[in-house]
């Protein structure tokens, strides 16, 4: 679990990130979870956008992504979810 201080740090880091994944009307699927997991291994911190035509609410999508990838939800803001997962090989982010 992330502490409040760590979440604030990650939110600040994610501020300049662009969303690299989009969740649409099909919702979350296994292929998407695999790709997001690979992106998290490379980057540690990513932003996922939820499109208007997504049938599920953003909290449900965030929970599914976090459980599927083993990541932490750093933030849900608007239609964007910020996910963090410590990389095993490419560790670049030093949490406070």
From TrEMBL:
Q: What is the lineage of its organism?
A: Bacteria, Bacillati, Bacillota, Bacilli, Bacillales
Q: Which PANTHER family match?
A: RNA-BINDING PROTEIN YHBY
InterPro entries of this UniProt entry?
Answer: RNA-binding_CRM, RNA-binding_domain, RNA-binding_YhbY, YhbY-like_sf
Q: Which residues form the CRM domain?
A: 1-96
* Organism of derivation: Virgibacillus profundi
Give the matching SMART domains: CRS1_YhbY
Task: Report the GO molecular function annotations.
Answer: RNA binding
What PROSITE patterns does this protein map onto? CRM
Protein name (record): RNA-binding protein
Which keywords fit this entry according to its UniProt record? RNA-binding
Under Pfam families, the record lists:
CRS1_YhbY
NCBIfam families in the record: RNA_bind_YhbY
